[in-house]
């Protein structure tokens, strides 16, 4: 599929960074909204949950739309919409039986129900107020957010310091760069939980979006969404997006994995990433009607794709339209779910003196 920067996306222009309080955030704190602008591209980031709140980009005719599902109401940000665009951790996705063993020591984690700990526990990073400061690196500019997670937080060992940089470049490319250090051996898996609808938030479902995933295998999961057994090839299954096809083409098939999850909510095993740590393409998403495209590049070995199967209209965005089933798609670059219990999966262990690093790039354009 031919891709080009959208009208105004590729313009050589400086990146502007501003911020202002959003609403009272409790305990005397205020949620800050940081705004990054370059040409026709704009992204906003909230200090609550280190959240990527909105992204506005043009279509093939230059018409700008906001393409992330994003509640503005504080109650929804803290409630039904708490995952939307947030940084999730310490451990994104699921850990079976709410426990991990590190160096022979078992640590009981705060459970979230259904026999798992999801997204770091009931009081994970998405609920926290992060500190923020402006950062500039060459032509790129944005916001650096920091969170200190104490030893034993949600049951995880080690005091963890986490930094997340959102950096916009003059061409409108948005990078999300993660770093973390620990005082004790622990496990870490960080991701961003934005939901995308390239037609614009509140403008129908994403079943007609064309999806390409750079993966030949996926990890089938049990009823708790915990991987079991070896990787399975996507060839000949509804999970084969090695060439572009509509998200909705096979989502309703009578495949046990689709039936159990109500659609896609699975981890794809990406083709090997470069050894030098360069972020390379994991996903290409395209909306044929608007022409908007999103290329997701990452250093991570996997991507969890969730098609908002459980959405029932509990959250609305700026357009005032309740988000129903399949109103967006989450493309969560990550290590694999439940990795601490699967020695064959890429390791998520982090040790004192080491540093967790991860980069994901959102490259918007038109076709």
Write the layout of secondary structure elements.
Blueprint: E1 16-26, E2 29-38, E3 41-46, E4 51-58, E5 64-66, H1 74-78, E6 87-88, E7 94-96, E8 99-102, E9 105-108, E10 116-118, E11 131-137, E12 140-149, E13 160-168, E14 174-182, E15 186-187, E16 191-192, E17 195-196, E18 210-213, E19 215-219, E20 232-233, E21 245-246, H2 256-261, E22 265-270, E23 280-286, E24 292-298, E25 302-306, E26 329-334, E27 349-350, E28 356-366
Antiparallel strand pairs: 1-2, 2-3, 3-4, 4-5, 6-16, 7-10, 8-9, 11-12, 12-13, 13-14, 14-28, 15-27, 17-26, 18-21, 18-23, 19-20, 19-22, 22-25, 23-24, 24-28, 25-26
Catalytic activity: alpha-D-glucose = beta-D-glucose
Family: Belongs to the aldose epimerase family.
Keywords: Carbohydrate metabolism, Isomerase
Which features characterize this protein?
367 residues, mainly beta, Beta-galactosidase, Chain A, domain 5, nine-stranded antiparallel beta sheet, six-stranded antiparallel beta sheet, 2 helices, 28 strands, globular
Structure, explained:
Belongs to the aldose epimerase family. Keywords: Carbohydrate metabolism, Isomerase. Pathway: Carbohydrate metabolism; hexose metabolism. With 367 residues, the protein is mainly beta. The protein has a single domain (16-366), classed as Distorted Sandwich (Beta-galactosidase, Chain A, domain 5). It is built from 2 helices and 28 strands. The protein has a 9-stranded antiparallel sheet, with no helix packed on it. A 6-stranded antiparallel sheet has the order 17-26-25-22-19-20, with no helix packed on it. A 5-stranded antiparallel sheet has the order 1-2-3-4-5, with no helix packed on it. A hairpin with a 5-residue loop joins strand 23 and strand 24. The longest helix is centred in the last third of the chain and has 6 residues, at 256-261. It is globular, with a radius of gyration of 19 Å. The model is unreliable at 6-11 (pLDDT under 50).
